[in-house]
Amino acid sequence: MDLKATVSSNPVRTAIFPVAGLGTRFLPATKATPKELLPVLDTPLIQFAIDEARAAGIERMVFVSHPSKDAIERYVREDEELETTLRERGKARLADMLHENALCETEMQVRFVMQPEPLGLGHAVLCAKDDVLPGPVAIILPDDLILGEPGCVQEMIDAYDPSKAGHMVATMEVDEDEVKSYGVLDVTGTDGPLILAKGMVEKPEPADAPSRHAVVGRYVLDASIFDALDGLPPGAGGEIQLTDAIAAGADSIGLCGFRFSGTRYDCGSKQGMLAATMAYAAGDASYASVLSGTQPTLATAAE
């Protein structure tokens, strides 16, 4: 495919993947393995994110990583030597699967940029500024796994209307005692799946939360987000908050939440990762006996 000759009608051409975090909640597993490569069954979290972006017609994927996490780039890019070795050993099906999963430069534009210091999600997005294509950008947090068809990013792009709101964030309603873990919308009304808002508050106390519409890890943002982030002072937790930059443009750009149809799993937590694994396994009949508890234990099998 000639990328230069490709003309896309997709208004969102770039997806940014912030993958520089240390994954401390999964230590010691993440001491050597980036959290984005932790698998749900046999599929790494980053693969779900890549597949979601592909299905949405994204042309360029920008990974904002850390120098210590070079394994992500090794996973993402095509490994022709490994594929050849597998084919020589009669494992063509595995080689085909790896080829389909990998991002080949002749079919997809791929960029890796570094975030050397953990200065916040907003800073990670700003690091990608010089590598995005013109127009609005999608941001995908791989440890927020959203299972469903169509994918969340595709749904958001289909619903995106800059005349209503230039900044769109994926949202879900959470319990009152959970709002302090999220950015929360200050809601003004609804328009179909869109939740119109005049601002956002990062991790409010329940008594101060303007709503229970919490922002989760998918965004479609007007390109002005980069100017808003540049020079933004640190916010909650002493980090440069993407939420603050989005809120700053609410009056001029417009802001809305989007109620997606899929099921979201917080795979940044052990509980969420387990729940995602069980849900994903439930869709495969070969795991039915394990999930039902009828699979023989090692002790039983040995008797």
TrEMBL record:
GO biological process, one term: UDP-alpha-D-glucose metabolic process
Record key words, sorted: Nucleotidyltransferase, Transferase
Main enzyme class: transferase
Residue ranges of coiled coil: none
Reaction(s) catalysed (UniProt annotation): alpha-D-glucose 1-phosphate + UTP + H(+) = UDP-alpha-D-glucose + diphosphate
GO molecular function, one term: UTP:glucose-1-phosphate uridylyltransferase activity
CDD domains: UGPase_prokaryotic
Keyword Transmembrane among record annotations: no
EC code(s) of this entry: 2.7.7.9
Domain Nucleotidyl transferase: 20-281
Domain of life from the UniProt record: Bacteria
The family this protein is said to belong to: Belongs to the UDPGP type 2 family.
Stated name of the protein: UTP--glucose-1-phosphate uridylyltransferase
The species this protein was found in: Roseivivax halotolerans
